[in-house]
Recover the amino acids of this structure.
């Protein structure tokens, strides 16, 4: 019995090693979609406007933090969202390139999962908006290795992010395309 169990156990162990890791997942906080029923649509609408012009976020670190957090979520959400299976797969590559761009601009560690980034950015945005608490403390985690104060300064003066803008526009187009396909089926 042991002779037959060992090869079977070895095969099962090898099979388990061959499985790809599950896709990354993340969520937006409840206050990310106040007044909006659909976080996907809300994030896409907000980011396509926010990143359309560098001037819209200049000197507005709370808004920049929310917009980057929403893009961070979209980069994780779009490849696995079942409502977007019919959209172009190029959006996944665009989102990955854009994610590298905004992370480099803010000094966000490239290998950190999305959720700590989203949590930190939203906590900083809340502290800035309410003028209560220390927004830099929310960004003083391993996700932001430059430190909270440096990240706040970068949020207040985001450089031009053309890849991020392009990905936000493509996400808007993807939703429009999906909606038009859904309307044709009705």
């Amino acid at each position: 019995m042991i002779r037959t169990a060992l090869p079977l156990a070895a095969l099962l162990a090898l099979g388990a090693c061959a499985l790809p890791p599950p896709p990354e997942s993340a969520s937006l906080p409840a206050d990310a979609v106040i007044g909006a029923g659909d976080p996907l649509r809300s994030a896409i609408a907000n980011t396509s406007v926010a990143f359309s012009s560098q001037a819209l976020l200049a000197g507005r670190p709370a808004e920049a933090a929310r917009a980057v957090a929403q893009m961070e979520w979209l980069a994780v959400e779009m490849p696995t969202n079942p409502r977007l299976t019919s959209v172009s797969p190029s959006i996944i590559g665009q989102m990955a390139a854009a994610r590298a761009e905004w992370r480099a601009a803010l000094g966000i560690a490239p290998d950190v999962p999305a959720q700590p980034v989203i949590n930190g950015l939203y906590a900083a945005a809340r502290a800035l908006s309410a003028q209560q608490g220390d927004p830099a403390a929310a960004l003083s985690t391993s996700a932001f290795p430059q430190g909270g104060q440096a990240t706040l300064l970068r949020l207040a003066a985001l450089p031009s992010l053309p890849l991020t803008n392009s990905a936000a526009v493509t996400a808007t187009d993807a939703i429009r395309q999906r909606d038009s396909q859904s309307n044709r089926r009705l």
About this structure: Residues 9 and 142 are 39 Å apart (CA to CA). The mean pLDDT is 85.
